[in-house]
Write a structure and sequence with these properties.
With 825 residues, the protein is of the alpha/beta class. It has six domains: 4-93, PriA, 3(prime) DNA-binding domain (GIY-YIG endonuclease, 3-Layer(aba) Sandwich); 115-183, Arc Repressor Mutant, subunit A; 190-263; 282-466, P-loop containing nucleotide triphosphate hydrolases (Rossmann fold); 471-516 and 575-712, P-loop containing nucleotide triphosphate hydrolases (Rossmann fold, 3-Layer(aba) Sandwich), CATH 3.40.50; 721-819, Ribosomal protein S10 (Alpha-Beta Plaits, 2-Layer Sandwich). Helix 21 (606-615) links the parallel strand 26 (593-596) and strand 27 (621-624). Helix 2 (82-94) crosses helix 3 (99-106), helix 2 runs antiparallel to helix 16 (420-431) and helix 22 runs parallel beside helix 23 (690-696). The model has no long low-confidence stretch (mean pLDDT 88). It binds adenosine-5'-triphosphate and zinc ion (2 copies). One zinc ion binds at residues 531, 533-534, 536, 549, 551-552, 554. GO terms for molecular function: 3'-5' DNA helicase activity; ATP binding; ATP hydrolysis activity; DNA binding; zinc ion binding. It comes from Tepidimicrobium xylanilyticum. One of its GO terms (biological process) is DNA replication initiation.
Length: 825
């Protein structure tokens, strides 16, 4: 038999070993090794045996090195499919990510080295058993003696034969074995006690004959178990109203058996009520039909749905998913983590039941692995989840939906620093599947692409039932101040809340800052309390009476006297949600007021409980950050107050006008979703700013047109790419010296390869706007570059910063390279 060559990725932190290594696959393993399987290989000078994953198999090897051999193959089936391998390689190149990080995004959750394969023995009839060869028979015997189940590695050890994988595959094809994956986690599996009748009775009569002489209760239990089969102990005790002692005594007499069974870890609560299918409105139908028309003609396409808040986008996704199921295809529906509320989950699970897998960051590794496995094994047809669900390992993917596509969380800020939209496009290209992205406020980039024809634009201009979009009133807070109102609430907002309370309607108040006061400062000398690890002013939290850093979490007691001038005039400035809550409670003592932000929702279940109380109208006024801004659908909310629309406007980032427009539109969209008209009050110190003005008119198109002109004029995305390189470390002097050194090397390199004139702009190195985070000083280089030259530029950056070909000493220095980052702070 011939030999082959495998490219193997090894899990290794060091960037110098982060590349595929070529190994020889000897003839005896050639048939067994496949792309996506894990193998054991000798690695490094000492030939330490390590686990790696095969990403490519080649017929030829043209190198001159003497190759090491693969020692053994671990899996009997690939852990990941070819399309996901290709996707990872593509990501590592596109986002300059280490291979191993790119692969970890698509590998099963947890440590891939810990994945185990269990082999289960099915029933084997004698006539079939007799047809097996000796090796096959011994495999069957070993598993049989091991109570019908064995872990693959253990079986191999007992077989002492390298061809075990092949034998297993043969037996599997004969229906004698099945395999399933499992991962070792620190979380103990959950068990529950189950009860069943020990003896088999053919009929109730037989049962009565055998144990009829026993007590009435015992007979009742036995009959119950005869009807139901194996059931949870708890359920039995409840149903027949029996004590544990009766059941225990039956066990002692050998009538029944109590066993521990593992409970399948599931993040989906069982008591989800069905979500009925809506008859599509005319607008919804047009949109749905256009998409289905493309799908039915087998045209893989991309769509952007621009649909106002409350226009019923979710119903369209649900019906598209249903069509996919009918076609035997799978769907991925992505929503921002923050909108992955019980409400969203309920809509999907309520419609499709156990055909839905839910993936989000609050799941434990065990839970996540279970969801991953269900997808991989084809047990579910839909994956609903946040960003990383784009990697759901389906094998027949028909549709990807990205809801609220403008959300910044779709861009990852950790390796691989991928943009979910681009990854989704890539996956859809691989499968020939359909991509639908949607928003009430599409990002400038996406809308621009729809105008260029890369996405087909579909509009939903009306709310469901022709409900009106809420009326938006802008309040100039400078005038409020001039007229003597120093409160957080303008007169108009105060009166509107009061009226809303009288009418028994609910109110949402939004402020994009948590905590109580946003900074603490000395009135005498101007000293501001800042985090001593980050260059960020600290936020006061009243309940704990602590100053907290929102970047690194450091908490300290607030000072009584100024540490600089020793004065006592320490003052608390700025407002956060906690202060809004305090004021609201004071002004409306009879209202039920609740706050929803990171601080009040960290306990498990607290988030759900607030949303439930809101739904059941037990809360009059809900105060919150981003969390109350998106996707929530409460019919009784008729008033939305935006306490300060300017917080996002003043950040030194080219996206801040866009973010402000989106936020106001989205928050406003929470009002008037039921039978009653909604009203929105926006308080601001910049009432004439176009973001605020155009959000008031719901004029997305005018906003887009204005914004896109600015982007063009000042050369920002989508007209260019922005690459941010942050050089950071604890020693500020070294950071400065190294930044300058690397900057010079980069410039020289770009000159050498004749790229310097094609790169639009290189600025830096200068202190990053967030100059210090967690004790690290950060210097930044920003490069702007058109699409045509981006690949060349990336190669240069890789050469200089990642491979460090110039052998610069980088002790204590790290780099963070991000292509089109979310924010350039
Ligand atoms: N065809 C329909 N007939 C009646 N009600 C519908 C229909 N489609 C959707 N709805 C209901 O309309 C409400 C708004 O729909 P949905 O929440 O999907 O809007 P959306 O466009 O996603 O809004 P947002 O962008 O604000 O999240 C929901 O309560 C939904 O159940
Ligand atoms: Zn002072
Ligand atoms: Zn800090």
């Amino acid at each position: 038999m011939n030999k082959k060559f495998a490219q193997v990725i090894i899990d290794n932190k060091s960037s110098s070993t982060d590349k595929p290594y070529t190994y020889l696959i000897d003839s005896d393993l050639v048939e067994l090794v496949e792309e996506g399987m894990r193998v054991l290989v000798p690695f490094g000078l000492g030939n330490r045996v390590v686990k790696g994953i095969v990403i490519k198999i080649e017929e030829n090897y043209f190198g001159s090195h003497k190759l090491k051999k693969i020692i053994d193959v671990i899996d009997d089936k690939p852990l990941i499919s070819k399309d996901l391998i290709d996707l990872s390689i593509w990501m590592s190149e596109k986002y300059l990510s280490p291979y191993i990080d790119a692969f970890k995004a698509v590998l099963p959750p947890g440590d891939f080295k810990e994945v185990k394969t269990n082999i289960l023995l099915e029933e084997v009839h004698d006539d079939i058993y007799n047809t097996l060869d000796t090796l096959e028979k011994s495999v069957v015997t070993i598993i049989h003696n091991n109570k019908g189940k064995i872990e693959l590695g253990e079986l191999k050890e007992q077989m002492n034969n390298r061809l075990t994988n092949k034998i297993i595959r043969q037996l599997e094809s004969k229906g004698i074995l099945t395999t399933s994956m499992e991962i070792q986690t620190s979380i103990e599996p959950k068990y529950e006690k189950y009860v069943y009748l020990k003896n088999r009775f053919n009929s109730r009569e037989e049962l009565n004959q055998k144990i009829g002489k026993r007590s009435y209760k015992q007979l009742e239990i036995a009959e119950f178990l005869f009807d139901k089969g194996e059931i949870p102990l708890k359920e039995l005790m409840m149903e027949v109203n029996s004590s544990i002692s009766t059941i225990k005594s039956m066990e002692k007499k050998g009538l029944i058996q109590i066993v521990n069974r593992e409970i399948f870890r599931s993040p989906i609560k069982e008591d989800i009520s069905p979500y009925k299918k809506h008859e599509l409105t005319l607008e919804q139908r047009n949109c749905f039909d256009t998409i289905m028309d493309h799908i039915n003609r087998n045209q893989s396409s991309k769509f952007l749905i621009h649909g106002v808040t409350g226009s019923g986008k979710t119903e369209i996704y649900l019906q598209l998913v249903e069509e996919m199921i009918n076609k035997g295809k799978e769907s991925i529906v992505l929503v921002p983590e923050i909108s992955l509320t019980p409400q969203t989950v309920q809509r999907f699970v309520g419609r499709f039941g156990d055909r839905v897998a839910v993936l989000h960051s609050k799941l434990s590794y065990g839970e996540r692995f279970d969801q991953w496995r269900k997808i991989r094994e084809g047990k579910v047809k839909i994956a609903v989840g946040a960003r990383s669900a784009v990697f759901a390992p389906f094998s027949n993917l028909g549709l990807i939906v990205i809801d609220e596509e403008h959300e910044s969380t779709y861009k990852s800020s950790m390796n691989p620093k991928y943009d979910t939209l681009q990854v989704a496009e890539k996956r859809c290209d691989q499968f020939g599947s359909t991509l639908v992205i949607a928003s009430a406020t599409p990002s400038v980039e996406s809308y621009y692409r729809s105008i260029k024809g890369e996405y087909k634009l579909l509009n939903l201009k009306k709310r469901i039932m022709n409900r009106e979009l809420p009326f938006v009133k802008i309040i100039d807070m400078r005038e409020e101040l001039n007229s003597g109102n120093k409160s957080i609430f303008s007169k108009e907002l105060y009166e509107a809340i009061e009226e809303n309370l009288k009418d028994n309607k609910q109110t949402i108040l939004f402020l994009n800052r948590r905590g109580h006061s946003t900074f603490v400062s000395c009135r005498q000398c101007g000293y501001v309390v800042k985090c001593n690890k980050c260059s960020i002013s600290m936020t006061y939290h009243l309940k704990e009476n602590r100053l907290k850093c929102h970047y690194c979490g450091l908490a300290i007691s607030p000072p009584n006297i100024c540490p600089v001038c020793k004065s006592k005039y320490i003052k608390y400035f700025g407002i956060g949600t906690e202060k809004v809550e305090e004021f609201t409670k004071r002004l409306f003592p009879n209202a039920v007021v609740k706050r929803m932000d990171l601080d009040t929702t960290s306990k498990k279940g607290s988030y759900e409980s607030i949303l439930n109380n809101m739904k059941e109208e037990k809360i009059d006024i809900l105060i919150g950050t981003q969390m109350v801004a998106k996707g929530l659908d409460f019919k009784n909310v008729t008033l939305v107050g935006i306490i300060a629309a300017d917080t996002s406007l003043n950040l030194p980032d080219f996206r801040s006008p866009e973010r402000t427009f989106q936020l106001i539109t989205q928050v406003a969209g929470r009002a008037g979703r039921g039978d009653f008209e909604g009203k929105v009050i926006v308080q601001t110190y910049n009432p004439e700013h176009y973001s605020i003005q155009l959000a008031q008119e719901y004029n997305y198109l005018a906003f887009y047109n204005k914004e896109v002109l600015i982007r063009k004029e000042f050369n920002y995305p989508p007209f260019t790419n922005i690459i941010s390189i942050i050089i950071y470390g604890e020693d500020v002097k070294r950071v400065i010296i190294k930044s300058k050194e690397f900057y010079k090397i980069l410039i020289n390199n770009l000159k050498q390869i004749n790229l310097i004139d094609f790169v639009d702009n290189i600025i830096g190195p200068f202190p990053a706007p967030l100059e210090r985070i967690k004790n690290n000083y950060r210097y930044q280089i920003i490069i702007k570059c058109k699409n045509e030259y981006l690949d060349k530029l990336k190669t240069a950056i890789e050469w200089v910063f990642i491979y460090n070909r110039y052998k610069v000493d980088v002790t204590g220095i790290k780099f963070n390279i991000d292509i089109n980052p979310n924010s350039i702070l």
